[in-house]
Specification:
The protein is an all-alpha fold and 205 residues long. Helix content is 71%, strand content 0%. It has a domain of 127 residues. The chain contains 10 helices and no strands. Helix 1 crosses helix 4, helix 1 packs across helix 6 and helix 2 packs across helix 3. It is elongated.
Length: 205
């Protein structure tokens, strides 16, 4: 009886990115490296691997491109919220520490996002803070829910200001510190979390 011939399946290939998505990812990379103000349309096109004319077919100006990057970041924040909420619900105690760990991990996993936001805060702080308030609203609600369950919580606790201070600290740690030395980075991550937890006054001053 002849042996059955085994055929190998061709390795599955990931679907190619759509041009608009490829452009936005390239823009985020370019803006995170040098800031939107110092990046040109040609810089983004080079990173995306296409001509400037092809890029301009999708985004007619750098401002529209910048707005597209913000839409990309907003979508990522919305996508990550359910998983963060589910992780907190699974904890039976110490949910506030868990919240800090979850949010900090999101910053650590997205260094380009944090570097982009740092550049943007330096270039146009009012517009960026307004955007952050809008997009952080669901996360703010999550923090209020966790704080409300704390025995030390005060009715005068300013969750929005608290989130802003913690966000600035996490942005600085994630965007500005070198990430090449893994051992040093692990120590800095642990120290950042400890400072945030020790400095979290649930009771109003």
């Amino acid at each position: 009886m002849p042996r059955a011939v085994k055929t190998r399946r061709a390795p599955s290939r990931r679907p190619a990115q759509r041009p608009r998505e490829r452009i936005l990812i390239a823009a985020l990379e370019s803006f995170a490296a040098r800031g939107a103000g110092a990046s040109s349309i040609q810089d983004v096109a080079d990173v995306a691997g296409m001509s400037k004319q092809a890029l301009l077919h999708h985004f007619r100006s750098k401002e529209l491109l910048r707005a597209g990057v913000y839409e990309l970041l907003a979508a990522r924040l919305r996508d990550q919220l359910p998983a963060a909420a589910a992780e907190l619900v699974s904890r039976s105690h110490d949910r506030y520490r868990g919240l800090l760990e979850v949010v900090h991990q999101r910053f650590v996993e997205n260094p380009e996002l944090t570097r982009f936001l740092v550049f943007e805060l330096l270039e146009r702080p009012d517009a960026v803070l307004a955007w952050l308030r809008d997009e952080a609203a669901p996360w703010l609600g999550l923090i209020r829910g966790v704080v409300a369950q704390s025995k030390d919580a005060s009715p005068r606790f300013d969750a929005e200001a608290h989130l802003t201070v913690l966000g600035v600290l996490m942005l600085a740690q994630s965007a500005l510190l070198p990430r090449s030395d893994r051992r040093w980075l692990k120590r800095m991550d642990a120290a950042t979390l400890r400072v945030m937890f020790l400095g979290s006054h649930l009771a109003a001053p």
